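Notes from hallway chat w/ T.B., transcribed later so I don't forget. T.B. wanted the structure written out for a chain they're using in a teaching module, and asked if we could keep both sequence and structure tokens in one place. Agreed to drop them here.
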Amino acid sequence: MELNVIKHSAATLQRPQVDEADRRLLAAIQQGLPLVPRPYAEIAAALGISEMEVVARLAWLKEAGVIRRFGVVVRHHELGYSANAMVVWDVPDGQVAELGRCLSGFDFITLCYRRPRRLPAWRYNLYCMIHGKNREAVLAHLEWMVNHCGLQSLTHEVLFSRRRFKQRGAIYTSGKREC
């Protein structure tokens, strides 16, 4: 079965050609996927297309750069995790990838990414987010990963959240023709 969803290569166009079916799909996913065993099938049924077409269109939208990231937004507070800390590290540039792989392997790390330094005011270039039931749990996780990854010599700061911001996925459309 051939699906007519590959319109143009992402490499050949500055702005991908998003059609009405793509817009309807983006509107359907921007509030999150349904919590059912086959979410793509449910979306497909609502849109009047096949599950396979939903998957193919999402893959194309990701490849074309319309969707930059497709993942889960976890609301940690509702799951009982009330302590959140961003740990910022001053890592030698040649070791960032290796250390990032080590840190991102822990189940209590939800984000781990590199950012450019902003010298002289901000020397940190690797960030990771730790969630815990309380501050003591977060600090225990931090101590464990420092010892496990051999980070004792690296300068870091622990920045605990003071406020909770609304977490949500991307907004692709408001009913107008943004895409």
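Follow-up for T.B.: Residues 14 and 175 are 23 Å apart (CA to CA). Might be a good example for the class.
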